[in-house]
Amino acid sequence: MTDTKTVQQDFQERANRVLAGGVTSNTRLLNPHLIVERGSGSRLFDVDGREYIDFLLGQGPNFLGYAPPRVVAKLAEAQKDGVIFAATHRREVEAAERILAIFPWAETLRFGSSSSEMVQAALRIARQNTGRKYILRFHGHYHGWFDNIQIRSEDGKAGVGSLGQVPEALEQVITINWNDTEEFLRTLRERGHEIAGVIMEPIMLNSGAIEPRPGYLEAVRQACSDNGSVLIFDETISGFRLGLSGASGRFGVSPDLAVYGKAMAAGWPCAALIGKRELFAEVATGRLTHAGTFNGNVVATAAVLAALDELESGEVYKKVEAVGGELIDGIRALIAKYDLPMRVQGLPMAFHLRFDSSDDEITSYEQIQALESGRYSDFAQHLIELGVWVAYRGIWYVSAAHTSEDVAETLARIEPAFKALADS
Ligand SMILES: Cc1ncc(COP(=O)(O)O)c(C=O)c1O
What we know:
The protein is of the alpha/beta class. The chain has helices at residues 7-18, 69-78, 90-102, 115-130, 181-191, 216-227, 246-251, 281-285, 298-311, 315-337, 365-369, 373-385, 404-423; strands spanning 36-40, 43-46, 51-54, 108-112, 134-138, 151-154, 157-160, 173-176, 195-200, 230-234, 257-260, 271-275, 342-347, 350-355, 388-389, 395-397. The longest helix has 23 residues, at 315-337. The chain binds pyridoxal-5'-phosphate (PLP). Belongs to the class-III pyridoxal-phosphate-dependent aminotransferase family. Keywords: Pyridoxal phosphate. It comes from Agreia bicolorata.
């Protein structure tokens, strides 16, 4: 290392040599190349000792903040028992019971390590139970990176989302606009006989914080029941974040299957597919394969139990609603102060900040695609330079570790970025 190189620059060079693109998930290519030393509560520290107030939460999982002490202590204890046994262990059963007690509509579950995998299990279960092939999904929703579900939407058409992906893998996927009841009902009328399952983010959070229009989820629910299609809520982001029972609880609509991950295990890798027992019948016999060496391991399920110990009290949600609300109000005040064409939309625990000069509420992915995302990336870069770690794609997550003091400090740190925009 030369004298002029920072520790971070040295690590970046080394990362680029040994990790493809310097990262281990392509999502991380979307932000600048930060080399993290550690996280604590609401803060991240890079290898040069620079500190950031964090609103990305590791793409969402760290809903209780980084290294929440009570969770860490329980995990340290749990892993003394060993991690994986090729047999069911006590904590797996306890974690499943605790999760299912939250969702009265669901009766059974399977654990996995990532939501991408659990989505695959859900699609397989939907197809096996209905004897149909097609999956109906929506532009702008993300359900993992596997060949049969990853898409890229352009001009209202969905194509492969990645190089190396076989286009044929998407032949049994129909993609339509979300939040449009008419289009949904028409598609089911025309193609319903071949649609095994409908998968959606029940609140669109990957591409913009868009709530379902009143009556939309109810109409989808009813139409799926009438048509015999399995309704799958992908609550990877919304689950355990919008409230203990996620979007299904918040909006009062129950799916047949739901995928959870991220906030469910306070940052440790665990995901779950939950649902009605009859849908899992052939999973239980073993004729429908769902497998995974690390599924339901001790650390993952101990993390679920420890996270639920915190989340079930309800205090976490009250705090995140309050602190997130203060942050939204503060950002809106900066937008107004500098008279900028920007907008905050969403909920205190997950919202999007965008450049958008219209006053119309954003209700569709089409509207989001028309916004100036490149301009926002430059702005996000400025926020990061000011010591606030955010996603380039506009989403802000608030954790239970954030405080009113963090909000005040964040607003003070980021005000120069708003001023610079106004001056430019
Ligand atoms: C809604 C949704 N589904 C599925 C996934 C894939 O989850 P994982 O990265 O755990 O495989 C994500 C990841 O961000 C997601 O947001």
